[in-house]
Specification:
Layout lengths: L8 H4 L4 E3 L6 E3 L3 E3 L6 E3 H14 L20 H7 L2 H18 L3 E3 L8 E3 L10 E3 L6 E3 L26
Antiparallel strand pairs: 1-2, 3-4, 5-6, 7-8
């Protein structure tokens, strides 16, 4: 048998409610989550839904504070995100982060083969000069600039002037 703990009404006043800036609901502190970087506070359910939506949609890899007026422009740390979401969503988040890192790294590129999708290392961090890249996973040789099969001595197809057939303008 369980017994409900009696709590006098004047005792309820000691537990202040905190307002969530997302749903505008008021909750006890135990149901709230504070973002470490900016100290903004939201109800845990809203913050969890916000984080999950951004990860599922692949919209952001650096998840910012949902408060548009956040004075510190805070971001959630990886350990904060990990505490909020299921493991498969966290794996997606880490995959998105890795893909973004490769995309922004001038020394790495993706293998263009649809069956491979390995990350390839460039010899020189010079994106304007096409260079031969050989994928270590599938041995394909491709151009670092246009991702087509390696074409020594020729310009990339995307940079070649458009030629019209006779009679076309």
């Amino acid at each position: 048998m369980t017994t409900a703990r009696y709590r006098p009404t004047w005792d309820l006043v000691l537990d202040p409610l905190v307002s969530c800036k997302l749903c505008l609901g008021e909750y006890p502190v135990e149901q709230m989550t504070t973002i470490a970087q900016c100290q903004c506070i939201f109800c845990t359910l809203c913050l969890k839904q916000y984080v999950e939506l951004l990860i599922k949609e692949g919209l952001e890899t650096a998840i910012s504070c949902p408060d548009a007026a956040c004075p510190k422009r805070g971001h959630l740390q990886e350990n904060e995100i990990e505490c909020m979401v299921a493991s498969e969503i966290m794996q997606r988040y880490k995959k998105l982060q890795f893909e973004r890192e490769v995309l922004l790294d001038p020394c790495r590129t993706w293998c263009p083969s649809s069956t491979c999708q390995a990350v390839c290392q460039l010899q020189e961090p010079s994106p304007q000069d096409p260079q031969l890249v050989q994928c270590k996973a599938c041995d394909i040789e491709f151009c670092s600039a246009c991702k087509s099969i390696w074409h020594p001595g020729q310009g990339c197809q995307e940079n070649m002037p458009i030629s019209f057939l006779p009679g076309e303008t």
